[in-house]
Amino acid sequence: MYSIANPPPAPALPMVDTRIVVRTPETRFAGLPDFPFEPKYVEVGGLRIAYLDEGPRNAAPVLLMHGEPTWSYLYRKMIPGLVAAGHRVIAPDLVGFGRSDKPTRTQDYSYSHHVAWMCGWMQAIDLQHATLFCQDWGSLIGLRMATHAPERFDRIVLANGGLPTGTAFTPKAFKYWRAFARFSPWFPIGKIVNSGCAQKLSPAEIAAYDAPFPSTRHTRAARLFPTFVPTTPDNPERAANEAAWEVLKTWHKPFLTLFSSRDPITRGGDKIFLKLVPGAAHQPHAVTRGAGHFLQEDKGPELAQQIHHFIQSTPAP
Question: I want to staple 295 with a disulfide (CB 3.0 to 4.6 A). Which of 128, 234, 258, 291 is the partner?
Fold first, then answer.
């Protein structure tokens, strides 16, 4: 049995033919609204992974994990408040998103591969004493990162996400999204993100979400991610996620949920964590009112404040 004291090992890094990997031209990221942050880069398994690293280097980091089909631009409204409160903020771009490298072959992508890449990235930057904030695919990957290396994390904040094993009910809204991502010839990423927000994005913000994806070769990961979510018992990542749940069931470190009220896919998904994760007991869980799936867009400064207060009220051991 796995536990926080005996976590499962992270999956091995995949082999990728880097000759057919694409990289979004830097000119695509010029002049993005409200995004003055300079990227840093680490090579993992032959791929360049981009990340933001803001705030004092001697402060414990807040790790912001984005999901599908966004990138670290999603956190531009949260980073300033967290840095102003004295926190170091780290926000990576998943492989296939943002400024990170983008393999072009379908077989190079899988749920397991993304966990391996981000665990490798976490080791490369030597992440320590982190507070994880994760949403959407940021939770499917981020919670695996935390349960593969619990010694690197002091606390977790989960918003509009989960860790499915394929044995629970799948909302119709997600099934529609999965079919659209797989079959629609039209895949406007910026407009897709806009549809998941309660407060609509400006044309410039929509364009910023489109920036990493200048061609269909660049959108391979964004197209595939919905198909990787475990929705049936025979999913290849069921066993790995069940092992992660064994760790979460022994997770006594602080665990906070901040789900939003207007997300048709994840609404109510906090209940299983409140029931099964011991660290969730007696925490100031909240429902984020008036926010859609991408609550970072709708309530970014408020979320940053809630994370700050949570860290202040749950000092690391």
Answer: 291
